[in-house]
Design brief:
Blueprint lengths: L1 E5 L4 H6 L5 E11 L1 H13 L11 E4 L26 H6 L4 E4 L5 H10 L2 E4 L5 H4 L3 E8 L8 E15 L7
Parallel strand pairs: 1-2, 2-3, 3-4, 4-5
Antiparallel strand pairs: 2-7, 5-7, 6-7
Length: 172
């Protein structure tokens, strides 16, 4: 099936998505990589306030490049998701419901996806210059000191993805 969906997705929308479905996303996602994940999880574990809202949020595993002069955004493509696996179950249990990246996930992540009715979407790697056309806005919103690993707010418009792990824990 093919879906054009607006974020945030509700549980009913997530439940109808099945592995292999093509999903075009419109709305805001957080762009985060390894170091931002680590820092957020440490803050959660120590009871410190975090700088983003996790409830029903979407995370795109990405480190966008700086835009060239006159361009609004640089190349933007998925990074390998397994690097975030040590942190992902905690983030899912804290409210994250959509994960976007590339590659396989470990057993603990799949179990957390199933338990909390989250979903893992993949976007093709190696086409980051092409994918930037589906991002209308990019701005750093937290952890500026991490440079390309800071947390970004990304506004997507019909961003192409595929369901790789559905809410039932079924995976490609």
């Amino acid at each position: 099936m093919e879906y054009h969906l607006s974020l945030p997705l509700n549980e009913e929308e997530r439940l109808r998505l099945k592995i292999g479905d093509k999903v075009f996303l419109t709305g805001e996602v957080y762009g985060m990589r390894d170091q931002a994940h680590k820092r957020i999880v440490e803050m959660l574990e120590t009871g410190k306030p975090i700088p983003i809202e996790l409830n029903n949020s979407s995370i795109f595993y990405v480190g966008p490049t700086e835009p060239k002069p006159g361009e609004r955004i640089g190349s933007i493509g998925p990074t390998t998701s397994s690097r975030m696996d040590p942190f992902t179950p905690t983030l899912i249990s804290s409210g994250v419901r959509i994960l976007i990246g590339k590659g396989r996930r470990n057993k603990e992540v799949i179990e957390a996806i199933k338990r909390y009715k989250a979903i893992y979407l993949v976007s093709p790697g190696g086409i980051s210059a092409y994918l930037r056309q589906f991002v209308s806005e990019m701005r750093v919103i937290a952890f500026y000191d991490l440079g390309p690993e800071a947390i970004y707010s990304l506004k997507l418009k019909d961003f192409p993805t595929f369901v790789s792990i559905d809410t039932g824990g079924n995976f490609l």
